[in-house]
Amino acid sequence: MPGKTPDKEPVENGGYRGGKDIADKDLKTKGKKASKKDDDDEMTVVVPPSKTQKPSSAPPPNDPEGDVAMDDTEGEPKADPVAQTINDIKSDFAHLDRAVALFDARFTLRALRSISSIRKRLTPDILAQVIAETYAPASAGAPFAKQMLQAIGRPDVSLGRQLGQEMDIDSEPKAAGGKTGAKKEAKEAIPEVDVFLGILTQVLLHDAKQVRRGFDFSQLLVERIRSLNRRTLDSLAAKVYFYYSLFAEQTAPLPPSPQSPAVSIRPTLLAALRTAVLRKDVDTQAAVIVLLLRSYLSTSHISQADLLVSHTQFPENAANNQVARFLYYLGRTRAIQLRYTEAHEHLTAATRKAPSSACALGFSQTATKLLLVVELLMGDIPDRATFRQPTMETALRPYFLLVQAVRVGNLEDFETIIADHADTFRRDGTYTLILRLRQNVIKTGIRMMSLSYSRISLRDICIRLHLGSEETAEYIVAKAIRDGVIEATLDREKGFMKSKEVGDVYATREPGEAFHDRIRACLALHDESVKAMRFPMNQHRLELKNAQEAREREREMAKEIQEGELDEDDLGGDFDAM
Questions:
Q1: Cα 490 to chain centroid, rounded
Q2: Which candidate, 22, 18, 55, 21, places its Cα nearest to that of 40?
Q3: Domain hosting residue 455, numbered range
Q4: What residue spans carry the region label Disordered (predicted)?
Q5: pLDDT tier, 161 (very low <50, low <70, confident <90, very high otherwise)
Q6: Same-domain status, 126 and 244
Q7: CA 29/CA 12 separation, integer angstroms
Q8: Are 94 and 147 within one domain?
Q9: φ, ψ for residue 488 (rounded to 5)?
Q10: Is the pLDDT of residue 572 over 80?
Q11: pTM for the complete prediction?
Q12: Higher-confidence residue: 144 or 538?
């Protein structure tokens, strides 16, 4: 209704359509005019705009919110996750090329570290597309590429062509470029790329729970690594053997069956260990030793695990994760062999070296459970703060109840806890070790009674500890006195135990020994930290070269000074004050 609007309103509307700022005009108005303008604004909101008016702030008719339309027009297009995953995999090929060209394993490790982020987005179609674009039909790696496609269930994919719509768009400039595209397609993939894609195939099959297919493919991949015989495959081979052993453990029949594939692959692992030791391949050597120990423990071959440890030397500069695993399996072996002191030392080091990330929480919990049982077998009571950790509280609940029963020395509660949580203890692999704690519970109960009573009869000991007879109580008390658990004497004629007065513990050597153990642990940690530091290679030669060049410059400068070609000003010195 343009005829009914005020005289000034069409001017304002026309000014707004012309791009003028209404705020600037409002700043020039004064009190009464400003109030009048407020009324005009209200009228402007009510009056609909004309058909020819196209304000820039108006939203599109199909969009209820104008800001969303602006974000869609101004924002950058989102990247396709499939194309992003393919680019991430192909970017690792460049790392492998540099690792081979410079003979530097750090670039290979960088490509292996990216697998954890790639595996979340990896699918058979993506991996098949990467394989099809990497290998040509007549290339040397084409037979192995077909085996990978067969393993992931994509045998119909042909090599040497691009599959996705996104890749077709990317291929157009290459086709227009002529020779450039032909050169890129003709580039042969190095064997390290073959093994890297083989590892991705193993990861994909493991995540898909295709155990049998993964085990068969892993055998082919191991044979290919042994046929290539390249030192640049050391870090990749360690990862291949890891998944190879993992598939063997999960393939039926499962350990501890003698027909399990985990038993049949031991000759292959031993041969790989012998080759790695001769080549000084640290990564493969550390990985294979850990896998063999795990295999021996899964079938309860403790003597073979002990022989392996005694006849091999674990590399000192191995990766921290492999060191933590080795210490854990070594501690479990020593605990089964009743060598609790060594087991406690190894398990403590394993828990300290365990990664603090959430992905390694299961290892930390398993190592801590075994460490708690070993401490109880040694006669010590674990610290209560261990059970209060947020990540450990739920998993260690049965062990907390077990520690309480052992600390009090209540044999009845101890047997009840074992019966209630037997499945948990069997699943953790600590059930047989926990059964050994019965004598420790009895010794703890005797120790508590020796501290509480100066004299107590054997009958009362039998009743309190729920023992079968007084003869059994007499035997247990005599053994505790002989082992040094308690300071007491046994009177067999009158049938009682008499405790001795407890001396000052600080007068003994126990505090000094504990302090010495802590100092030794700190020094060992310092030595390992120094060994783990990386220094540039041949840095001393560079320093000697720089020193030699500096001496040459000094000789030339001294010679020029003697000949009079240089003065103080040329040397840059300030001798005005002299």
A1: 55
A2: 22
A3: 394-499
A4: 1-80, 548-578
A5: low
A6: yes
A7: 13
A8: yes
A9: -155, 170
A10: no
A11: 0.70
A12: 144
Shared domain for 30 and 146, answered yes or no, is no
- CA separation for the pair 492, 474 (Å, rounded): 8
Residue 145 or 443, more confident:
145
The closest of 425, 447, 318, 328 to 380, measured between CA atoms, is 447
Q: Which residue has the higher pLDDT, 269 or 30?
A: 269
Q: Would you list the DSSP string of 262-317?
A: HHHTHHHHHHHHHHHHHHT-HHHHHHHHHHHHHHHHHTT-HHHHHHHHHH----TT
Whose tokens are 């339309």? That residue is 69
**145 lies in a domain?**
yes
DSSP 425-449: HHHHT-HHHHHTHHHHHHHHHHHHH
Strand (E) or helix (H) holding 228 = helix 211-228
Same domain as 282, residue 151:
yes
**DSSP-derived secondary structure letter, 359:** G
In DSSP terms, which residues pair with 490 in a beta bridge? Answer: 497
| 367 part of a folded domain | no
User: Number of folded domains in the chain?
Assistant: 3
Report the alpha-carbon distance of residue 377 to residue 74 in Å, rounded. Answer: 68
Domain end call among 483, 499, 515: 499
The answer on 23 and 106 residing in a single domain is: no
SS3 category, 340: helix
Task: Give the span between the Cα atoms of 317 and 283, in whole angstroms.
Answer: 9
| Mean pLDDT (the chain, rounded) | 79
Q: Count of CB atoms within 10 A of residue 424's CB?
A: 15
**In terms of domains, do 245 and 121 share one?**
yes
Domain C-terminal end among 243, 276, 299: 299
CA 373/CA 340 separation, integer angstroms: 10
Which of 76-85, 211-220, 411-420 has the highest mean predicted lDDT (pLDDT)?
A: 211-220
The domain spanning residue 447 has which CATH number?
1.10.10.10
Residue linked to tokens 């987005």: 121
Q: Do residues 30 and 89 both lie within one domain?
A: no
Is 39 inside any structural domain? Answer: yes
The pLDDT of residue 77? 58
In this prediction, residue 554 carries a pLDDT of 81
- pLDDT (mean) for 29-41: 45
Tell me whether residue 577 is in a domain: no
Q: Which of 246, 148, 162 is nearest to 206 (CA)?
A: 246
Average pLDDT over residues 261-276: 94
